[in-house]
Prior knowledge:
Pfam families: Glyoxalase (PF00903). This is VOC family protein. It comes from Microlunatus aurantiacus. With 131 residues, the chain is an alpha/beta fold. It has two domains: 56 residues, Signal recognition particle alu RNA binding heterodimer, srp9/1; 53 residues, 2,3-Dihydroxybiphenyl 1,2-Dioxygenase, domain 1 (Roll). The strands form two sheets. A four-stranded mixed sheet has the order 1-4-3-2, covered by helices on one side. It has a four-stranded mixed sheet with strand order 5-8-7-6, covered by helices on one side. A hairpin with a 4-residue loop joins strand 3 and strand 4. The protein is built from two helices and eight strands.
Amino acid sequence: MTGLTPYLSFPGTAREALTFYQSVFGGELVLHTLADFGRHDGPADAVAHGMLQGPVELFGSDAGPGETTLRLDGVLFSLLGTAEPSTLEAWFAALGVGGHDADPLQKRPWGDHDGQVTDRFGVRWLIGYQG
């Protein structure tokens, strides 16, 4: 387990979001429903706890009634230098499907490459590499 793992609370889209992130980053996805945990405070198939474990780790669930859902302002999930350049470029492109480039991945005047993309779930990613 890494030192910091974001836990995202989705508005009923946790299964879709975590499955999407697995398709982008790879890794193992484990999803537990409310029914799995014997809970009756929402739809039985709602995600009570999900874990993506691999090169990028994320936790997530569907928000319960009255709980705040994912809203990120002024937050970037940074993947600077966390993989080979070709992998980072592929992640950037995949995250942009259904989302939008906030700042295209490009070579900067100081020689490094970086860019920002907001995915279709509203998560903004900073992706880049040296040289």
